[in-house]
Design goal:
77% helix; binds zinc ion; 2 domains; mainly alpha
């Protein structure tokens, strides 16, 4: 193998390292984490809102019960009023009884209305919290949209670089003998991405081990076009 072919192989290795980095950047992109972070904030906000809505419903239900009670009391009071003034009841004892009931009902109504005010006071901070949550959610949704746009841009950038680098690799492997390329590809998988190493003195630049005397001798004597492997790690050696 001519020196030129070795350089080409090293060039392919650089492209492969770049492809691996781009694939990693695609799969583990900080822009993804940024999206996930906002999504988790939205989930927290949704859970808080659900709790507040439950409180609101409970207070609304209590208020409805009290409203109904006031309405029933008022209905009964106007019935009594009608009886007191339409002349249908004339006995003093009966009139007094009706007046007494009306007074009792009014008293009861005021009591219920006081409780209603208490419920409304409880409802106030709940509604305020609900509004705060709704505002926060709207902001979070805006942020999510921005983060998703960032992610989309980022991934599109990585994809285009990846397509570019893959195309360069396809062109670069063209002149490499099929057997050598197959050996290179297999070594890359088994050796963590680095299949080609320079021989520096007696040391393999891939595993940083010295070649055995026999292997070093052979590496020196083999013709230029022979493929020589490091006897320690198996990498293709550039002599
Ligand atoms: Zn080695």
């Amino acid at each position: 193998m001519a020196t030129e072919a070795y350089d080409q192989l090293l060039g392919i290795q650089d492209l492969d390292v770049h492809i691996t980095q781009l694939e990693h950047r695609y799969a583990h992109n900080p822009a993804r984490d940024a999206v996930a972070e906002v999504e988790s904030q939205i989930a927290v906000n949704d859970a808080a809102t659900a709790k507040v809505v439950d409180q609101q419903r409970e207070l609304d239900a209590r208020q409805k019960v009290l409203d109904d009670e006031v309405a029933a009391i008022e209905k009964r009071r106007s019935e009594i009023d009608a009886k007191l003034y339409d002349g249908s009841v004339s006995a003093t004892k009966d009139l007094l009884a009706l007046q007494e009931e009306a007074a009792m009902l009014l008293d009861r109504q005021r009591g219920v209305e006081d409780v209603e005010i208490e419920v409304m006071e409880l409802l106030e901070p709940v509604l305020a919290e609900l509004n705060t949550n709704i505002d926060a959610k709207a902001k979070l949704l805006n942020t999510l949209e921005e983060r998703n746009a960032d992610l989309e841009r980022e991934l599109a950038d990585v994809e285009s670089q990846l397509a570019d680098t893959v195309a360069k690799r396809e062109a670069a492997v063209e002149p490499i003998p099929v057997d050598l390329l197959a050996a290179y590809d297999e070594l890359r998988v088994n050796l963590g991405g680095v299949a080609v190493a320079r021989l520096k003195g007696k040391t393999c630049d891939g595993c940083h081990m010295e070649l055995s005397a026999v292997a070093y001798d052979r590496a020196k004597k083999e013709p230029d076009d022979a493929v020589v492997h490091c006897d320690q790690c198996g990498r293709i050696l550039i002599r």
